[in-house]
Each structure stands twice: as C-alpha cells, then as structure tokens.
Amino acid sequence: MGNLLIVLFSSPMQFQNADTVYEFAKAAIEEGHHVMVFCDVDAVYNLMASQILPDQTTPAKKLAELAERGVRVLACWESARLRGIDSKEALIKGAVESSLGELALLISESDKVIAFTT
Description:
This protein is 34% helix and 22% strand. It is an alpha/beta fold. It is globular. 36% of the residues are buried.
C-alpha cells in the first residue's frame, strides 16, 4: 500500500482535529498503509505525556496508541521549543523530534498528504 503523511497543526483542546487524525490514521493502517503524523505549531501540545490521564481518553493517549501500532509520530522541535516544551523529555512514548526540513522530505516521499488545521 501507500505512504500517508498526516500533518496536524491544531491544539488538542480547541479543535477535534486530533481525534479525526486518530480515526483517519487508524483506518489507514488497518488498510495496510504506512502512516506518519507530523505535529507542528500548537499541535505539539497533543504530544505532551503529562496529558495522558488514566481515566480519560485524551489526544495524547490516542497518539501514543498510534505510535504503539507503528505510526511514526513526529514533533517539530522548534515549535516545541518556542512553546517551552522539552521535546526530549516531555513527549509521549514513541514521538520523535523532527524539523520542517524533514517535513519537506516526507511530503516529497509520501503518496498522499493530508493537513488538519484551524
């Protein structure tokens, strides 16, 4: 199957985009696609490990589940830095630092790119 890149720009609490990304990515991997999720600007807040709560299903918990299922979850390190987030320590398990340069490369290598923004 193909390579799907999902770019998420929106924060976790103001928009439902993180939930939509989760459902979309889950359906794509179930169909056999290779999926990557790149979080930029306020979307890096979706990757905060401190937002994984034992009694609630949060965007962070859903993205961590995707990472466990083999989805490559990427966080723009500059967006994280500008928001005071230590991307080496504060992100969910499975999320990795990335850059806009890598995003450009991923876009060129992907069969489809979908962006979720405000």
